[in-house]
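Tokens for chain A. Residues wanted.
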């Protein structure tokens, strides 16, 4: 499987708050994933984004055996920058991305498996992964 993507909803007591996505290309060779997340503005700053991203990272590192996770964040998105840095992501370059009809700089950030293992994380439980592994090409 050359590429895959897993989109998950973020909910609080049945109320949708946003979504997170885990995706990869040539995962069996490069062992890297890309994470992205979006929360409604009224739900930001309450820990939901951090908790959701920890869930993705747990899946990637502990259950899919990823080597690294990457994300891209607009330089003016201070909330997302903060979540990424709190989780241990480190600067890995820049890119130019479109937001509407405007070209903006984004920071590329990377979190390695080793760096993630050094971080204190919320406990996450993943059930049923054995039967899902073929969906990720494993």
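Reply:
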């Amino acid at each position: 499987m050359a590429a895959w993507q897993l989109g998950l909803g973020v909910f609080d007591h049945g109320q949708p708050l946003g979504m997170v996505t885990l995706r990869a290309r040539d995962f069996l060779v490069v062992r890297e994933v890309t994470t992205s997340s979006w929360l409604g503005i009224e739900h930001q700053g309450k820990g939901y984004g951090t908790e959701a991203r920890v869930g993705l990272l747990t899946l990637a590192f502990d259950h899919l055996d990823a080597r690294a996770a990457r994300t891209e964040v607009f330089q003016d998105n201070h909330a997302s920058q903060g979540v990424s840095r709190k989780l241990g992501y480190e600067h890995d370059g820049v890119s130019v991305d479109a937001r509407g009809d405007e070209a903006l700089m984004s920071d590329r950030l990377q979190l390695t498996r080793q760096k993630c293992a050094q971080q204190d994380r919320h406990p996450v439980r993943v059930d049923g992964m054995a039967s899902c592994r073929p969906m990720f090409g494993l």
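Helices lie at 27-30, 48-63, 78-86, 113-117, 129-132. The CA atoms of residues 3 and 122 lie 29 Å apart.
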